[in-house]
Hints:
The structure holds two protein chains of two kinds.
Chain A: H1 2-6, H2 8-42, H3 44-59, H4 62-73, H5 77-101, H6 105-113, H7 118-152, H8 160-169, H9 173-205
Chain B: H1 2-11, H2 13-47, H3 49-64, H4 67-78, H5 82-106, H6 110-118, H7 123-156, H8 166-174, H9 178-206
Helix pairs in contact in B: 1-9, 2-3, 2-5, 2-7, 3-5, 4-5, 5-7, 6-7, 7-9, 8-9
Amino acid sequence: MSWVARNWDQIALALMQHVGISLAALAIAFVIALPIGVWAARNARVEAAAIAIAGFLYTIPTLAFLALLIPLVGLGPANAIIAMVAFSLVVLIRNIATGIRQVPAEVVDSARGMGMAARQILWRVELPLALPLIVAGLRIAAVTVISVSVVAAYVNAGGLGTLIFNGIATDHPPKIWSGALAACALAIAVDASLSALERRMRRERSL
Amino acid sequence: MFLDAWRYAASHPQAFWTALGVHVLLSAAALAIAAGIAIPGALAAHRRPAWSAWVTNGANIGRTLPSLAVLALVMPLLGTGFAPSLFALTLLALPPIVQNTLAGLRSVDPDVVDAARGMGMAQREILRRVEMPIALPAVFAGLRTAAVQVVSGAVLAAFIGGGGLGDFITAGIAMMALPQLLVGAIPVTLLALGVDYAFGAAQRRLTPAGLRTP
C-alpha cells in the first residue's frame, strides 16, 4: 500500500497512457468499421467476407499478433494500435451491419417518401436507430482494446502493462497488483458506463 | 525469414515439441476443468433464479477482465510455473462457458418444458432429453470462445513461467531474434485457428436437426 501511496503519479501516468492509446485505437477502428459495416448491411456477400476476415484477425492470439507485426513495424505504440484496431473490427462491423439491417423497412420507406436522399436516410434515420447496437459493439471493442493494450506494454507501447512487466521483472508485487487491478477496474468501469448508455438509448428509442 | 524460422524449429526439435506439448496440455486442462465447473454450475444456477442473477453478473464482470491482468494477479499469490498458469487460465475460461450455458438454457421455450412434464417426464429426464439438447449449441459456442481465449491466454503464461509457445515469442522479442519469434507466433496462431474451426464444426454437428438453420 505504501508503494502505491508513494507512486500514485506513476500509476496515474500509466493509466492515462492506457486510456489514450485505447481511445486512439478505438477511434481508428470505428472510422474503418463504419463504411464496411454500412456496406455489409446492404450486401450479404460483403458481410460474410468482412466478418470472415475480421473474425480471422480476432482469433489470432494477442501476443502472437504483436510479435508478427514486429518485422513489419517494429516495437512501439504503432504496433500496439494496429493490433488493437485489428481485434476490434469484427464486433464493430457486425454490430453496425446488424443495427442498420434491423431498422424497419417501413421507416426507411417513409423517409424516402418524405423526399430524403439515400445519404440523408443513412445519417438521419438508419444510423440513429442503429445506435444502441453500435454502442454495444463499441463497449465490447473497448474492453478488448483495454485488454490488448495491457499486453502491448511488452512491445513498448506503455500503459498499465508496463507496471505489471516491471513488477514481474523486479519481483515487486505491489507494482504487479497496482497495474493489474487498475487495468481490471478500467475495463469494468468502461463496460459498465457504456452498457448504461446503451440501456438508456434503448429506452429512449423504446426498442 | 520464414525459412530461418523453419530451420530454427528443425534444429531445436526437442524444445519445440516440449513447448507445443505444454501449450496444448495447459490449454486443454484449463478448458476441461473450467467446463467441469461452469456447466454444472450454470445448470444449478438456472434452477434458482436468485443465484442466476449473481452468476450472470459475475460472469459478465469476469468476461471484461484483461487476461494478462488475471495472470499477473495470480502470480504474487501462487508463484510462477505451470500450476499458477493453469489456475489463472481456468478462471479465464469460466465466464464464457457459464454465460453461454445459461443463455442456452434460457432459450428453451417454457411451453416445451411444460409439454415434456405433461408427457410424464421427470425433472432429470427433462434436463437430459429436452433442455440439454436444445442448449447444446450454445454450450459449444461458449466452449469455443473459452478455448480460443485459453490458447491465446496460454501464450501470456510465458510471463509467469507457465511454459508453452509463448516462451519462443518472449525470447524472440527480448533478443530481437525474428526466427525464434516466428517459431512461437506461427504455430500458436495456427493452433488458435484450428481450435476455433474444430469447435465451430462440432457446434454445427451437435445442433439438433430440428433447430438447424440452413
